[in-house]
Design goal:
The complex is a heterodimer of chains A (120) and B (112).
Chain A (H helix, E strand, L loop, with lengths): L1 E4 L3 E4 L5 E8 L2 H4 L2 E8 L6 E6 L5 E3 L7 E6 L4 E6 L8 E9 L4 E5 L3 E5 L2
Parallel strand pairs in A: 2-11
Antiparallel strand pairs in A: 1-3, 3-8, 4-5, 4-9, 5-6, 7-8, 9-10, 9-11
Chain B lengths: L3 E4 L2 E3 L6 E7 L4 E2 L4 E2 L1 E6 L6 E5 L3 E2 L7 E6 L2 E6 L8 E7 L6 E2 L3 E4 L1
Parallel strand pairs in B: 2-13
Antiparallel strand pairs in B: 1-3, 3-10, 4-5, 6-7, 6-11, 7-8, 9-10, 11-12, 11-13
Classes of the chains: A mainly beta (120), B mainly beta (112).
């Protein structure tokens, strides 16, 4: 199982919208038992959970970001996506797409991460 | 949100010696319905994403060396590396998922 997300980095200006996608290889996208999650990590700092979406399209977002976050899933493509609107410098971070093993409530497969920098 | 606090922030251990990291949650993460602690441990090496080591406080993830072990219940947890190897140099995080949002400790840096 591999999560393939955009490599490298992105540069956004304040107030712009961040869009990221993640492709899932293997069969876990369709067999159930997993949720598809986004987490972020500001450079040199700790981890923050952004939210999850499952293969049925049911989502839950961190209340601290809820007003700006949208997640979606494309089953046939085995992809899930994150949109974060009205970014500010505090949104500068490495964004990871991650698989959550639902029964364990633990994050067992991680993408390599995309560095997103917000600067004017 | 549940606050996770790790101690120490960093520690230096000789090769082959034991490393112990503590994690305390601001409320219990023990689910009474299934008697499981929803507490996980991760290892993050520089330039890499975190790697799951332990879930349910003490269940070792497949492929993780048995020198890594987790213990504790309720609000107090420990990650132990029984015999530190050079490849274990990393930052270690605890994480709770008793309720949403899941939250992480601030990390503990382990050095030789």
């Amino acid at each position: 199982q591999v999560l393939q997300q955009e490599s490298g980095s992105r540069l956004l200006k304040p107030s712009q919208t961040l869009s990221l996608s993640c492709a899932v290889s293997g069969d876990s996208f369709s067999i159930g038992g997993y949720s598809w999650t986004w987490l972020r990590q500001p450079p040199g700092k700790g981890l923050e959970w952004i939210g999850y979406i499952n293969s049925l399209g049911i989502s839950y977002y961190n209340p601290s970001l809820k007003s700006r976050v949208t997640m979606s899933v494309e089953g046939p493509k085995k992809q899930f996506s994150l949109t974060l609107s009205s970014v500010t410098t505090t949104d500068t971070a490495i964004y990871y797409c991650v698989r959550e093993r639902t029964i364990a409530r633990a994050f067992d497969i991680w993408g390599q991460g995309t560095l997103v920098t917000v600067s004017s | 949100d549940i606050v996770m606090t790790q101690s120490p922030d960093s520690l230096a251990v000789s090769l082959g010696e034991r490393a112990t990291i503590n994690c305390k949650s601001s409320q219990s993460v023990l689910y009474s319905s299934d008697n499981k602690n929803y507490l996980a441990w991760y290892q993050q090496k520089p330039g890499q994403p975190p790697k799951l080591l332990i879930y349910w406080a003490s269940a070792r993830e497949s492929g993780v060396p048995d020198r890594f072990s987790g213990s504790g219940s309720g609000t107090d947890f420990t990650l132990t590396i029984s015999s530190l190897q050079a490849e274990d140099v990393a930052v270690y995080y605890c994480q709770q998922y008793f309720n949403t949002p899941p939250t992480f400790g601030q990390g503990t840096k382990v050095e030789i």
